[in-house]
Each structure stands twice: as structure tokens, then as C-alpha cells.
Amino acid sequence: MTEIITIKNKRNWFIAIFLPFGLLILILIMFVILPIASAENTYLLSILHYIILLIPFLGFFILFLNIWLWNTFGKVILEISSEKLKVTNKNLLFSKPKEYQVSEIEKISILDMGIEKTKYYVRFNSLFSKSNYSIAFKKGSKTIRIIDWLTIENANNILQRINKNR
Q: What does the alpha-carbon distance between residue 64 and residue 68 come to, in Å, rounded to a whole number?
């Protein structure tokens, strides 16, 4: 039997409200200002000039659209069966589902990411939010985080549901 758990992304309201205005400005630049700026007497050169000018704006538009979609509508869908775990990031452009075999998973646990230490920095995630826990599992020598930025209650609930279906 497959159980499906859907976890909504925690929204940043500043990004959700103001980034669409930036996207609209980029659309205005790409489809109004750039064609006017690249218009020349020879049509072939003006089309090539327009395409060359369009490439960086299109790249930033796709990047900002990806950030806005994930922030505003993003969900993590976790499908649990007795054979595999499948993690799907819904409304995240260019992402494909990740599948993990249950037989290869050694231990599933909750990681506290309140203080994140790496070689180059120390980041305090717990200063402004209580959503700093992750569901992770150990596969070989690697620790793989599958769901991030949960409260401790949500993390415990998801961990119990995963362990119940294993």
C-alpha cells in the first residue's frame, strides 16, 4: 500500500508579493523595450541583435519564475511504499522525482538544522523561525535530506508515518 504525504512549502510573503512585479518588468523589457532598441534598417541583423539581447533577460526571467513558483505554490510530495520512497518537488521547474529503495536505507532520522556548520561558515537558522528540522536518512556513507524546514511536530509526525510503512 502506498501512502502519500504532501508538505506545503513555507512561504516568504515578500517574495510572493513583490517578485511578480519584477517578472512583469522583465516581460516589458523583453517584449517592448528590446525590440525597439534592436530595430535597425536591416531586418536580419536586428533579429540577431534582438535574440542576443534577449538571452540574458530570458535567463533571469526563468530563474525568477522558478523562485516565485516554488515559493508561492511549492509542495513536496512524499510517496511511501514498502519497496521505495519517492520524493517529488511539485511546482519547481526542471526537477524530477527522486526515488530511493527502502532496502538501501540504513536509518531515517530527524536532523536539527538550528545551527548549520560547514567548513566556511556557521549559520543560525533558529533565530527567526522554529521550522529548522529536516527528515534525513543514511544511505551508505551519505546523509540525504529529503524534506527540509519542518517544525518538530511535523517532523515527528512524518517520521512516524514513514516508519509505520517500512
A: 6
Reading the block at residue 53, the C-alpha cell is 539581447
Pairing verdict, β 75-80 and 84-90: antiparallel
Q: Residues 157, 160, 161, CA angle at the centre, nearest 5°?
A: 90
d(C-alpha 162, C-alpha 81), whole Å? 9
**Residue 24: which H helix or E strand, with range?**
helix 13-28
Task: Give the chain as a 3 state SS string.
Answer: CCEEEEEECCCCHHHHHHHHHHHHHHHHHHHHHHHHHCCCCCHHHHHHHHHHHHHHHHHHHHHHHHHHHHHHHCEEEEEECCCEEEEEEECCCCCCCEEEEHHHCCEEEEEECCEEECCCCEEECCCCCCCCEEEEEEECCEEEEEEEEECHHHHHHHHHHHHHHC
The whole-model pTM stands at 0.84
Q: Locate cell 521547474: which residue?
A: 93
How high is the pLDDT of residue 43? 79
Mean pLDDT of 133-153: 93
